[in-house]
């Protein structure tokens, strides 16, 4: 028996795959490689290249493999771009999830761990986000993730689907030298690419109501996040009681200024970031409590900021 990881060739999905393998659990991957990489897939893992919008592909996959459950990481993850491409975002994140759930139902697979997002909260009016914080997404991406959670909830009521959704905040670092974040929109790869190109990194605003004037956010290590996916899958498989949603958050957060200083120290490249205008609507501080996940999902911040930056930098240089 195995767990299917959708999007298992991507940055986060590939770490989830390796966390399952490290626990002795077989996996199968489906990924269309729109943002993933074939060389992120371990040679021993069955790999189906294609979209989860393809119902025939999913039917074949489930028929050819004994699947215990699904970790659903695949999706269109760019919140800013989703504002310009709402139809594409909903197709990739809502329609595709519906197709996947129908394929699971047809195959008698009744467990799923869903990759959700902090984007479901929008701009919360509290500086410590909990699972009970009101949801008010501000982009088609955030809306699509919240709809994904509703789909799981409704399937749970209708069919008994066992499920949980993990709301990510800012995922960084690397657990393996061959795996690194290639997103053109995330802070770490943007800074690294600037440094490797000899450019000065930029940050948005230094006049926030924070100790150093830069905004404070929650950054978590991808390997820690991956472990909690395995813990969630194991609890679902054991039939244990589990919450419908969990925040994977640090509880304290770090400022963008701290990240810049740490990146300079770790890379050995001295720089003072250029200050661009702050973005409209960006709150001073957003940090999430991870207490529920700590209680149930083996969630723990096992890496310091320096370790997160070092692992990400090492992985990026190893790929150069």
Automatic annotation (TrEMBL):
Pathway(s) per entry: Carbohydrate metabolism; galactose metabolism
Domain of life where this protein originates: Bacteria
Biological-process GO terms, alphabetical: galactose catabolic process via UDP-galactose, Leloir pathway
InterPro entries assigned to the protein according to its UniProt record, in alphabetical order: Epimerase_deHydtase, NAD(P)-bd_dom_sf, UDP_G4E
Isomerase listed as a keyword: yes
Pfam families: Epimerase
Catalytic activity annotation: UDP-alpha-D-glucose = UDP-alpha-D-galactose
CDD domains: UDP_G4E_1_SDR_e (cd05247)
EC number: 5.1.3.2
Record-annotated NAD-dependent epimerase/dehydratase domain positions: 3-249
NAD in keyword set: yes
Assembly: Homodimer.
Family the UniProt entry places it in: Belongs to the NAD(P)-dependent epimerase/dehydratase family.
Full protein name: UDP-glucose 4-epimerase
């Amino acid at each position: 028996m195995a767990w299917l990881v959708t999007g298992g060739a991507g940055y986060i999905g590939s770490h989830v795959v390796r966390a399952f393998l490290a626990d002795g659990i077989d996996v199968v991957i489906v990924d269309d490689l729109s943002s993933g990489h074939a060389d992120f897939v371990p040679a021993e893992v069955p790999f189906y290249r294609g979209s989860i919008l393809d119902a025939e592909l999913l039917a074949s996959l489930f028929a050819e493999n004994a699947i215990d459950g699904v970790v659903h990481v695949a999706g269109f993850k760019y919140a800013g771009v989703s504002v310009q491409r709402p139809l594409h975002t909903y197709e990739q994140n809502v329609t595709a999830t519906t197709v996947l759930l129908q394929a699971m139902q047809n195959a008698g697979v009744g467990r799923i761990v869903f990759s959700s997002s902090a984007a479901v909260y929008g701009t919360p009016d509290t500086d410590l986000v909990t699972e009970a914080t009101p949801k008010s997404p501000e982009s088609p991406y955030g809306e699509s993730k919240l709809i994904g959670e509703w789909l799981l909830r409704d399937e749970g009521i209708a069919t008994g689907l066992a499920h949980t959704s993990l709301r990510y905040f800012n995922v960084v670092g690397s657990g393996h030298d061959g795996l690194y974040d290639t997103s053109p929109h995330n802070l770490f790869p943007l800074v690294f690419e600037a440094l490797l190109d000899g450019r000065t990194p930029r940050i948005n605003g230094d006049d926030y109501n924070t100790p150093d004037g830069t905004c404070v956010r929650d950054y978590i290590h991808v390997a820690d996040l991956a472990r909690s996916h395995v813990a969630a899958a194991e609890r679902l498989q054991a039939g244990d009681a589990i919450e419908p949603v969990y925040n994977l958050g640090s509880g304290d957060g770090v400022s963008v200024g701290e990240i810049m200083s740490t990146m300079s120290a770790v890379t050995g490249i001295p720089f003072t970031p250029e200050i661009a205008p702050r973005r409209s609507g960006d709150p001073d501080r957003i940090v999430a409590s991870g207490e529920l996940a700590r209680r149930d999902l083996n969630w723990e911040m096992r890496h310091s900021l320096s370790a997160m930056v070092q692992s990400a930098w090492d992985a990026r240089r190893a790929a150069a």
